[in-house]
């Protein structure tokens, strides 16, 4: 059925156009039409234009009773984390961020739901998101391809990312300038007269990991240097041990190591110690995140501060503002800082 036929079919019934009619003519979901009609500013502009055009052509008039029903709230917000539960419950960054979300929700009446969406779990997440269980969604630690096929765009509720959101989604976000974080780490090592600097990168399907590597390589290039060695972990302690073992076995000459997370840095430190290398005399080491154990006297790890609690708190406050229809900044980027300790 063509567009003209769709218009005639909707008009020929003698009834007023419905939300479903508008969705069909516009080629979008019912939830997207509902969001446009409510004035949701997070809907992509191209979809807004399609819906507004269909509304005008069909003469659609929103049903106030239906809108009242649709505006009923669940009393909860959901934090969606596309990670295996083993990582969520072993990486200190997540507990810090969840604490920040709870603080951001404050003494209000919204309950927090934690949704772990492991790889391949999009179908279950879609059912949850589209089931009306939450008035807004927070997303943290997403990978490329997670929550795809319009799961979030068609949710019908505000969405805020803790981190850099996918291009074109139109969601709110609170992020750290991870490119500058990578630059900061490289700059500090260069200022310590290190010239053969290796890096254990994070997963390259994650925006934060890509940005940290980008900043690191740019700062080295500005100084006329190239990475002494690059490898890729998954932000875990075990991957730091594994990649440090590979680095030591490679024969590459290096006098500094930047790991894209503190856990990977801690794993690398263990292997450097076993090898008999002195830190920082032989090898300077920097991590990223500044987890609590980085400041332990026995470790004293130099680290780029990743303010997970602050980011999560501000993201949850932004989400509450969007749910309430209040004006708010929708893209916030925080500047990183460096905690200098004994490993450099």
UniProtKB/TrEMBL annotation:
The keyword Phosphoprotein does not apply. Pfam families: LacI, Peripla_BP_3. The keyword Transcription regulation applies. It comes from the Bacteria. Keywords: DNA-binding, Transcription, Transcription regulation. InterPro entries: HTH_LacI, LacI/GalR-like_sensor, Lambda_DNA-bd_dom_sf, Peripla_BP_I. Residues 17-71 form the HTH lacI-type domain. GO terms for molecular function: DNA-binding transcription factor activity; transcription cis-regulatory region binding. PANTHER family: HTH-TYPE TRANSCRIPTIONAL REGULATOR GALS, LACI-RELATED TRANSCRIPTIONAL REPRESSOR. This is LacI family transcriptional regulator. It comes from Candidatus Brachybacterium merdavium.
């Amino acid at each position: 059925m063509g567009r003209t036929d769709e218009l005639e079919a909707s008009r020929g019934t003698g009834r007023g156009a419905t939300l479903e009619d508008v969705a069909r003519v516009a080629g979008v979901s019912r939830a997207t039409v509902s969001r446009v009609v409510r004035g949701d500013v997070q809907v992509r502009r191209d979809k807004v234009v399609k819906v507004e055009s269909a509304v005008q052509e069909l003469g659609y008039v929103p049903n106030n009773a239906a809108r009242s029903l649709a505006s009923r709230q669940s009393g909860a917000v959901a934090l969606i984390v596309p990670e295996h539960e083993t990582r969520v419950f072993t990486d200190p960054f997540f507990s810090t961020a969840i604490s920040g979300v709870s603080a951001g929700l404050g003494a209000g009446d919204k309950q927090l739901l934690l949704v772990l969406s492991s790889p391949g779990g999009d179908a279950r997440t879609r059912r949850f998101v589209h089931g009306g269980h939450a008035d807004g969604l927070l997303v943290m630690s997403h990978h490329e391809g997670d929550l795809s096929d319009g799961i979030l765009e068609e949710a019908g509720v505000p969405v805020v990312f803790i981190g850099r959101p996918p291009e074109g989604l139109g969601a709110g976000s609170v992020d750290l300038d991870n490119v500058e974080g990578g630059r900061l780490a490289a700059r500090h090592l260069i200022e310590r007269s290190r010239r053969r600097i290796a890096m254990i990168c994070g997963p390259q399907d994650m925006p934060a990991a890509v940005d940290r590597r980008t900043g690191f390589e740019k700062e080295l290039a500005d100084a006329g240097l190239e990475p002494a060695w690059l490898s890729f972990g998954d932000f875990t302690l075990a991957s730091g041990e594994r990649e440090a073992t590979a680095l030591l076995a490679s024969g590459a000459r290096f006098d500094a190591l930047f790991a894209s997370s503190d856990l990977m840095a801690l794993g690398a430190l263990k292997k450097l110690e076993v090898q008999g290398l002195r830190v920082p005399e032989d090898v300077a080491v920097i991590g990223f995140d500044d987890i609590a154990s980085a400041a332990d006297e026995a470790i004293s790890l130099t680290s780029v501060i990743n303010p997970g609690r602050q980011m999560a708190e501000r993201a949850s406050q932004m989400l509450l503002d969007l749910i309430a229809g209040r004006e708010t900044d929708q893209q916030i980027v925080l500047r990183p800082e460096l905690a200098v300790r004994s490993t450099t």
